[in-house]
Structure formats: C-alpha cells, structure tokens
Amino acid sequence: MRAAAAAASTGRRGIRATASADARVLCSDPIHHAAVDILRSRGHEVTTMDRTSMSKEELIAAIGEYDALVVRSGTKVTADVMDAAASLKIVGRAGTGVDNIDIPAATKRGVLVMNTPGANTMAAAELTMTMIMALARNIPQAVESMKAGRWDRKLFMGSELAGKTVGLVGLGRIGRTVGQWCRAFGMTVIGFDPVMSKEAAEAAGIASVPLSAIWERSDFISLHTPLTSETRDLVNAETLKQCKDGVRIVNCARGGIVNEADLLAALDSGKCAGAALDVFRSEPPPPESAALVAHPSVISTPHLGASTKEAQLAVARDVAIQIADALDGTKFVGV
Ligand code: NAD
Ligand code: MLT
Questions:
Q1: Whose CA is nearest to atom 6 of ligand 2?
Q2: Which range (14-23, 113-122, 279-288, 311-320) has the least confidence?
Q3: Which of 9, 41, 154, 166 pairs with 47 at a CA distance of 20 to 30 A?
C-alpha cells in the first residue's frame, strides 16, 4: 500500500491488514456505485467495471497494482490471480459465501477474504418462493403459451402448496426464511442441516429430520447450502430414486449441488415433475446443459437470486464499509 499508515491489526484468521489512507481498490465485477462512493469517501482510489466483469487475463494483468479487490460471482479469484497480486491485502465478496475465491491460496499469501452474509438473504429467499409458486402453477409455461396466442386452460393444471411437504436442505439464513414463508402457505416444513441444532430448527418452525427423510417425504425440495465436497451432486440419480414420484426440485443456492444429467433423466422419466434452477454447474450454462434448460418442466433464471436493487445496494454498502474498516485496521467483519 502507498502511504501505509501506522497501525497494523490482526484479523480473525490471523491475517495482517495494514492501515492505509489511500489504498487502491479494484472492483472487477460491476457493482452498485454506493461501494465506490463509500470507498472514495474513506480516501481510497477505486477502479470499477461498468457493465461486464474483467476477463481472467485482464485481471491478472491489472491486479498487481491493487491493495484490495471487490468481486461478485463473475470473477474467479484463483491461485494464478493471487500469484499476480503482489500488493493485495483484501478480497471482499459482495455476496454470500466465498466459493469463487481460492481460500488456501489467499491464506498462503496472507490475503484477508471477506463476504457480506445476510445482505441478500431476502432477495434470495423471495426468488426461491417465487420459483416454488411458479413451479406449482406452471406460470412461465402458461405465460409463454399466452404470448404465442394460445388459451391452454387444460394444459396447465397446477398443484396447491397447502398440505404439501417442503424439504429444506440447509437451514441458514435463506433456508430458515423460506421455511417460515412456506409455513404461512400451510406447508409442512422439514429440514436437514448438520450444524443447526434440532431446537434451533424447531424454533424456526422447521422439523429437523435426517437427510434420508428429505428425499422420502418431500413434495418440494429446496436447496440452501454452499457448494462443498459434501453438497456437490447431492441431488443425483441415487437420491432422486429415493424421492416421491412427482417431486419438484428448487435450486437457488449453487450450481453443482444438483447433478444436471441425473436431474434431466429424472425429468424425462417423470420421476421429477419439475425443477426450478437459478444456478448452474457452469454459468452461463454450456451447450450440453441446453436440454435441461429447454425441458418443458424446467423453469430457470440466470442467477438472479441477489438481483434486486435493495440487495445490490446492501452488498455494495456492506463490502465497502468492511473493506474500508479492515484497511483502517479497526474492524474485521465478514471474514
Ligand atoms: P448460510 O451460511 O446462512 O446457510 C447455509 C447453511 O447450509 C448453514 O446453516 C450450513 O450449516 C448448511 N450446510 C452446510 N453444509 C450442509 C450440508 N452438507 N447439508 C445441509 N446443510 C448444510 O447461507 P445462506 O445465506 O442461507 O445462503 C445459502 C446458499 O444460497 C449459499 O450457497 C449462498 O451462496 C446461496 N445464495 C445464492 C444466491 C443466488 O443469487 N442464487 C443469493 C444468495 C445466496
Ligand atoms: C450470492 O451468493 O451472494 C449470489 O449468488 C449472488 C451474487 O453473487 O451475485
């Protein structure tokens, strides 16, 4: 950092961030201008992207100049990016989780990594409810048929939520919020989370069950976990086989939690009556995912879970304040 100031502080992971009055901050994904305003008002120099994320090559060429990096989902902060980041002290993710950042590579180089948990909970939970309802009533398909000039009343027989069981995998901020709202629709809400206690789940109105019961009992399964070695391909041929006939799957969490080929086979066989997908193993989905996206029982959105004005403002504001505080060496939030 240029003009490095006096104090140095130790973050929660034992990583040192040195205070600076004028750090150089790169936002390699487009971000709400609130982040730029806050960082500049705290004395930092900020470079932003207008519309598109930086390519990996552009990022590697530029990153050596910067003390802090702000990303959303588009930028993958891989070990080779870290290798080029001679001055980097902090990576701040304007979103939930840090799965697009190579944490071992960051830790090895003493780079602090932070995220903004909670800032987009409402947005992601609301999209999930929208997906559950749209799936149950075939809304996107009916809209498409109206636009094509048809009046297909018989084709779009729906299914009520009241009286149905929703199985939530992951009972963190979003999972618990979705659970609360599903209860308001008269659904039975069951959930699995290896970390959440039975009491905490029950306090949120969710019956804590083993994972096997999620597959066996749910009419709708909604995923709300990070992508980890335990959750990768969690919904697969084997687990789908254990599900009720006509199960509906919702993934507004992370691509890769659902095995896309196995889901397509379950949709083709009719085992799975529908799927709502906001996220994909690879984004945008490659040509080999086209059959899944095009399947008549699949509704999908291009990773819109956090795409509300309110959530984008909140994540931008949170990440900017967190980075500025860490650069000052005063607070280490979201690490
Ligand atoms: P959170 O950290 O509050 O909750 C995640 C929960 O998953 C935790 O309670 C954790 O114990 C649980 N979990 C971890 N491994 C598990 C496993 N193997 N089985 C069951 N549960 C497990 O996170 P959150 O804010 O609720 O976010 C949930 C997911 O949604 C994250 O992957 C996040 O990145 C994603 N998300 C997506 C969007 C979007 O744009 N689609 C927006 C926001 C969040
Ligand atoms: C998140 O995890 O916060 C989201 O997937 C949204 C995003 O990265 O834009």
A1: 306
A2: 14-23
A3: 9
Of ligand 1's listed atoms, the one at least distance from the Cα of 170 is 21
Ligand 2 centroid–CA 141 distance in Å is 26
- pLDDT by residue (tens digit) across 6-25? 233 333 333 333 445 699 99
The answer to whether 322 and 90 have CB atoms below 8 angstroms apart is no
Give the residue numbers annotated as catalytic, written as ranges: 254, 283, 303
ipTM of the complex in this document: 0.98
Ligand 2: residues whose CB is within 6 Å?
72-73, 95-97, 120, 305-306
Residues with CB under 6 A from ligand 1: 96-97, 117, 120-121, 124, 169-175, 192-196, 224-226, 228, 230-231, 252-254, 278-279, 303, 305-306
Residue 101 DSSP label: B
Average pLDDT over residues 156-183: 97
DSSP code string of 222-248: EE-----TTTTT-BSHHHHHHSPTTEE
Closest residue by Cα to atom 1, ligand 1, is: 172
pLDDT value of position 3? 35
pTM above 0.90, yes or no: yes
Q: What distances in angstroms separate CA 290 from CA 27, 74, 127, 280, 284, one per listed residue? A: 31, 21, 22, 11, 11
Q: Which two tokens stand for residue 217?
A: 């009992």
For residue 305, give the ligand nearest its CA.
1
- HSE-CB of 139 using CA atoms within 13 angstroms: 9
CA distance 258 to 267: 13
Q: What is the pLDDT of residue 124?
A: 98
Please state the φ and ψ torsions of residue 198, each to the nearest 5 degrees.
-55, -40
Rounded (5°) CA angle 193-298-315: 55
Q: Which ligand is nearest to the CA of 95?
A: 2
Q: How many CB atoms lie within 10 A of CB 178?
A: 30
